[in-house]
Amino acid sequence: MTRRGGVSTGVIAGLNCGFGADDDPAALAENRRRAANAVLPGATLVGLHQVHSAEVVTLDNSWGDDSRPHADGFVTRRHGVLLSILTADCAPVLFADMTAGVIGAAHAGWRGAHSGVLEATVEAMEALGADRGRIAAAIGPCIAQPSYEVDEGFRAQFAEGDERFFAPARAGHWQFDLPGYALARLEACGVGRAMWLGLDTYADADAFYSFRRSTHRGEPDYGRQLSLIGLDASV
Prior knowledge:
The structure is a single chain. The protein is α/β, with parallel strands linked by helices. It has a single domain, classed as CNF1/YfiH-like putative cysteine hydrolases (4-Layer Sandwich), CATH 3.60.140. The protein has six helices and twelve strands. It has helices at residues 25-39, 110-115, 117-127, 152-155, 178-188, 211-217, and strands at 44-46, 56-58, 73-76, 81-87, 91-97, 102-108, 136-139, 149-151, 166-168, 173-176, 193-196, 225-230. The strands form three sheets. The protein has a six-stranded mixed β-sheet with strand order 2-3-6-5-7-11. A three-stranded mixed β-sheet has the order 1-4-12. A three-stranded antiparallel β-sheet has the order 8-10-9. Strand 5 (91-97) and strand 6 form a beta hairpin.
């Protein structure tokens, strides 16, 4: 999803779907309804309380917005539900093994990706009968390398073999390739297909919310866009 087509106003104008923004509850509910209906009409929208972890849960029964588990990935075989990931620069990653009828979704900021949330999501899908060689994974809109400057302390948290994801910037700083890093981890763990959509949240203010852009602009709040995947109940 982009931020277009919603009813939120002010600095978060558009299709804000995140609970963390200072938004009118009625506008938020309408935005989430529109997002769900655009992907799988009639499906139950399910989300997580995202905490930048490697925790992954299995959806057996739907939970409400007030009882979302603290995790950053989830998987299911259930039809008629939409797994949703909220982002505003972090990478949303959607997974599917259509032969097994197993789907997954992960919130992969740098902490989650570094900690193994993508691999944990694949493992949880396999526990439901998926085969990683059949899994297709798509990395949605996120902050891209030209927009993501980090310092030496950030760089020091990564392994020596990860230097290819850091391009030199101004003194003591680097440009980090979050989607490239996530893509490499997906490929290394053996998923059948993986791709990034090539959409930079920071660079396109008309289409996407961005935490970093809002911070740089000194804005008081920022919205969140939603990435969704589901299995049609009629199939």
